[in-house]
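sry for the spam today, last one i promise. struct tokens for design, 405 residues
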């Protein structure tokens, strides 16, 4: 017998990132942290390998009153000032047909979208190389995660994506597909405009057969090296009636506010009736699961954006880290090329991932650990978190890794 229901009986969370981080910490105690390369955690660390919490975020936070911190949010969908700030932060002056719901991080946005879009037993399309919790969430909601192949050669595998979309449409008359872009976790790839255009043209055609929902996870958007990346959203201005894009946004990386658990789900569609229904369903999910979102952080986000001096200070501080990430990537990628280390297409962001077959992965992962190099296992690869390793330790790392292959 079991006390659990049939869906929950057997669920067990094994988080590969935290597991690897624990090993790295043990090695630091044993061998001294200066001798350990801890490339496990997907959070930003500075050049002294100290956890980075932006002063431009956490100093103004102190000015928020205790009452505001203690209070519930101004509504289940999120504080109105937060929702308008999310819109402006992402879309600036663009006119897009949207509704927004505050969520507990990007995770809340992704999970609630899967929950409200798919019936149990239906298929969720997700990238073959991607953020682990997409699988966890699929299981949680009783849906089947099916991979589209992410890369062919040096870019997005557009043919496979189209084929998988068509198969799922033929099977269930409706498609929900996750795309994590820009600064994809774990490869660091950012799709080209042409790739996006080809996807949207195809989606537009396929949507004549049934509804298509693209769930775009933009957790790392504010760390793109392209200052104009957000112009991408213009592409969603003229989507046909049968298409909805749901954007999963997060303050975790954007503000170095991982623990605050604030994000948003933003639906875009020209179909007003469906947009209203989506919003009603999401607010219902909010009330029945997390209830309301952290009031003080929503307040802070609006304050940061609307006060020019605070906003400028934030942009300055963040841009230093965007540059630092680029410097770290330049060091590692240049040396990886010299060493002929295979890695997935990389453009920018927090991570780079070595291409390693699943068959060899575990052994190499362990050999690296024996040499005090800590990575995270992903599908056919080992992820290196550039966000958490200093430039100093990245120098010579490719060579050390090569010696372990
Ligand atoms: N999506 C991706 C690809 C991520 O890497 C993360 C965080 O690591 C998230 C979404 C969501 O993070 P959070 O729920 O903290 O906003």
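last one done:
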């Amino acid at each position: 017998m079991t006390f659990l229901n049939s869906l929950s009986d057997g669920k067990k969370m094994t988080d590969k990132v935290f597991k690897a981080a624990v090993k790295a910490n043990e090695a630091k105690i044993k061998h001294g942290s200066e001798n350990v390369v801890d490339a496990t955690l997907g959070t930003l660390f500075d050049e002294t390998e100290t956890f980075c919490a932006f002063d431009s975020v956490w100093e103004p936070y102190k000015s928020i009153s205790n009452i505001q911190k203690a209070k519930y949010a101004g509504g289940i969908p999120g504080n109105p000032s937060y929702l308008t700030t999310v819109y402006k932060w992402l879309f600036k002056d663009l006119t897009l047909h949207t509704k927004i719901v505050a969520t507990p991080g990007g995770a809340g946005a992704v999970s609630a979208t899967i929950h409200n879009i798919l019936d149990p037993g239906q298929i969720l399309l997700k990238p073959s190389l991607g953020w682990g919790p997409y699988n966890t969430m699929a299981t949680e909601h009783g849906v089947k995660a099916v991979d589209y192949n992410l890369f062919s050669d040096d870019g997005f595998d557009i043919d496979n994506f189209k084929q998988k979309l068509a198969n799922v449409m033929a099977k269930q008359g409706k498609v929900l597909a996750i795309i994590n872009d820009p600064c994809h976790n774990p490869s660091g790839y950012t799709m080209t405009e042409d790739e996006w255009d080809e996807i949207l043209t195809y989606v537009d055609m396929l949507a004549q057969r049934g509804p298509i929902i693209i769930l775009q996870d933009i957790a790392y958007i504010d760390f793109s090296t392209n200052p104009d990346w957000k112009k991408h959203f213009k592409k969603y201005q003229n989507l046909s009636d049968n298409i909805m894009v749901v954007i999963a946004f997060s303050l975790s990386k954007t503000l170095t506010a991982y623990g605050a658990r604030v994000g948003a789900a933003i639906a875009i569609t020209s179909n007003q009736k469906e947009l209203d229904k989506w919003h009603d369903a999401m607010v219902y999910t909010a009330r029945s699961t997390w209830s309301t979102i952290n009031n003080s952080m929503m307040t802070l986000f609006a304050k940061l954006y609307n006060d020019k001096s605070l906003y400028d200070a934030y942009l300055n501080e963040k841009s230093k880290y965007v540059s630092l990430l680029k410097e770290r990537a330049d060091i590692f990628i240049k040396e990886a090329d010299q060493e002929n280390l295979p890695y997935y297409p990389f453009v920018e962001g927090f991570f780079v991932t070595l291409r390693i077959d699943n068959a060899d992965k575990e052994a190499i992962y362990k050999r690296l650990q024996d040499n005090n190099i800590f990575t995270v296992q992903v599908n056919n690869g080992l992820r290196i978190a550039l966000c958490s390793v200093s430039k100093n330790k990245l120098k010579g790392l490719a060579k050390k890794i090569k010696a372990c292959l």
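The first strand starts at residue 37 and ends at 38. ok im logging off now
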